Amino acid sequence: MNDFLEWYEKSNPNKSKSTYDAMKYNYVRIKKTMCCSETDLSDLNEDDFVDINSIINKIYPEFSLNTTIQSCLGIKFYCLFRGFKQEIIKDCDSCLKTLIKDKNEIVNKNELSEVERDNWVEYPTLQEKMKQYHQYTIRKDFPVPDGMVDMDKKLQQMRNFTMLGMYTFLPPTRIGNYQKMVVRYTQDGRTETLKKPHKSFAKKHNYLFIDEGDKYRDFTLVFNQYKTSKHLGQIIVKLEKGKSLHGDGGRTYEILDDYVRFRRQYFKSMTRTKQHPYLFFNLNSQKEMLTGNNYTGILQQTSNEIVGKKLSVNLLRHIYITHFLKKESSIQDKTIIAEFMGQGYTPTMLEKYNRVNLGMGVAEEVDKIYDQMVLHFD
User: Fold this and answer.
1) b or e along 290-306 (b: 16 or more beta carbons within 10 Å of the residue's beta carbon)?
2) For residue 278, is pLDDT > 70?
3) Contact, 102 vs 68, CB < 8 A?
4) Residue 362: what pLDDT?
């Protein structure tokens, strides 16, 4: 695998780290599909890749259309790496075009896929069930007396819930935003200088800066590494006790605060002198951050437990945006939300003419004027 990934990076030097990571996951997925446990892709030969449609048909039922497209792209680059004949590369390109066409048709219709329909939940319902779970399950035995509970089990529960909470009460980012987030404790309000990032904090990570105050702690989320970071740059978001962010009612702060406090308690109980660097880490190894597959599995398992639906990051983003676009939102609001989610946003001319939050009296007056104009032109 390493030889292939090195070749891919050299062949595509201007891609983002997220793209390189995606190709690594593609390799693992393709290997799982095509190989038994004792073999690797390097053990396969050209004939094993001749029927690309047969390979894709094994991937698509198990994974989403987006993931299948990525897998097909991975197969194409792997075949290029191995120097396979051009007919196979052309078949990969043909398959990619078909998959992308299918995706565009679905996107342009704005319709739910079968998987989305089976797992859809309205955003207010999701938020309400998460609030109840936080209040009556997570906080049931919190703060936790030492030795009174299974610390590993409690940390896993709180980690999983907090992960889903970050995608429920804030606009849902992509997986990598929190997957690659490390924890740093700050002193003397150093988070205030983050608009001009401190040189000691390398931009190869995303950060949760924790500023311990006299009464309460403040949190600052810093996104350096994410899919569209080259275009949107660094994103900084501050969470403070009692203050609402993007309409979350301060709930994100409360969930994160509970998790951070127990996380610290957990490491003290383990007699570890140093906490794990990643905000959300693999409890089995305590050395690795969660993989993308780990992340998706945890979100789906946790959401299924709380709301009876298996919610992926992609579906959570669709649910949030569908709810958000039902509201009257200004161009400024849409821009802020889009950037937080890692998306560029360009308003249409019609949106620039639109006015929001007019109030009932103004809105009714505008309607009267419009009716008069219609009558006049008729």
Assistant:
1) bbbebbbebbbebbeeb
2) yes
3) no
4) 47
- Mapping DSSP onto H, E and C, the string for the chain reads CHHHHHHHHHHCCCCCHHHHHHHHHHHHHHHHHHCCCCCCHHHCCHHHHCCHHHHHHHHCCCCCHHHHHHHHHHHHHHHHHHCCCHHHHHHHHHHHHHHHHHHHHHHHHCCCCHHHHHHCCCHHHHHHHHHHHHHHHHCCCCCCCCCCCCHHHHHHHHHHHHHHHHHHCCCCCCHHHHHCEEEEEECCCHHHHCCCCCCCCCCCCEEEEEEECCCCEEEEEEECCCCCHHHHCCEEEEECCCCCCCCCCCHHHHHHHHHHHHHHHHHHHCCCCCCCCECCECCCCCCCECCHHHHHHHHHHHHHHHHCCCCCHHHHHHHHHHHHCCCCCCHHHHHHHHHHCCCCCCCCHHHHHCCCCCCHHHHHHHHHHHHHHHHHHC
Peptide linkage before 145 cis (omega within 30 of 0): no
Q: 0.85 cut: is pTM over it?
A: no
Q: What is the torsion angle, in degrees rounded to the nearest 10, for the CA atoms of residue 61, residue 65, residue 71 and residue 75?
A: 90
CB within 8 Å of 223: residues ≥ 6 apart: 173, 177, 206, 229, 234, 235, 236, 237, 342
Contacts of 178 (CB under 8 A, 6+ apart): 163, 166, 206, 279, 280
Encode pLDDT of 134-183 as tens digits: 999 998 877 766 666 788 888 999 999 999 999 999 999 999 899 989 99
For residue 266, give Cα distances in angstroms to 19, 139, 217: 34, 16, 18
Which residue, among 293, 53, 267, 322, has the nearest Cα to 152 in the 3D structure? Answer: 267
Sign of CA dihedral 323, 329, 331, 336: negative
Answer whether residue 247 shows pLDDT above 90. Answer: no
Predicted local confidence at residue 328, as pLDDT: 80
